[in-house]
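_Per-residue structure_
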Amino acid sequence: MAGNPKTLSQLFSQKKLVVAPGIFDMISLKVADRLGFDCLYMTGYGTVASYLGLPDAGLATYTDMVNRVAAFCGATSTPIICDGDTGYGGLLNVEHTVAGYLRAGAAGIQLEDQEFPKKCGHTKGRRVIPAQDMVNKIKVATDTRGANKDFLIVARTDARTTHGLDEALKRAEHYLKAGADVLFVESPESVDELAIIGRTFDVPLVANIVEGGRTPQPTARELQEMGFALAIHPGLGFLAMGYALQHAYSHLKESGDSLQYEEIADFQDFSKLIGFQKVWDFDEKYRSLETK
């Protein structure tokens, strides 16, 4: 766990790009946390795939996701921005979702303006709700978090793909006026579009970097110079994991053993990552109390 971590607002006030890996299960969280990232991002795509084995297409429920939020946030003091999809319904659902994510320990919630059922922002077939409906959701979200200004509302618009960048920018402006703390214009399709987004707003902005997705990948320095405060890499972890497992299991299937396979973590070190050192220390401390 990170010691004495900064809040998201404190991180963004430093005017230095915050890079957040996507965490999707407890192992990915522990690996990222050990490396000392200042912020983590709970990816909806990866969490739904890992937890349910399903696509991120509106199939996960609020109960599914708040369960994961509580597990992740309970295991680290590093602030985590958690994907809240569309709020899982109407305005009452949004209130329930924001309150639940707050109780579960999230540092911020991402809400998006897609129709339900939503879809991953770098896939086809996304449709958005009227801008005013999303404005209302943001107002409910900000009212629900109340005086807890450390809990940030991240407003995402998926309008770019279907309606163009101008419409996405207009929506983002409306969401900012409604009370959003952070703006997330999803799926810009060129470096020029990223630069336009950065020039348009003087508030914390999210760049969603999906390896193989719709948005190009500038360097961290370039994103910071464009005006972005946060670069999330939601897919890097599960894509790397999937690739590694494909190779490891293929080797096992073909050879029947793992004697020559060396691209793995050290077992003892991995056991310490998961928490076995505490178990070993406990056993040593209380060994004398064991029944003879």
In short: The first strand starts at residue 18 and ends at 23. The two ends are 37 Å apart (CA to CA).
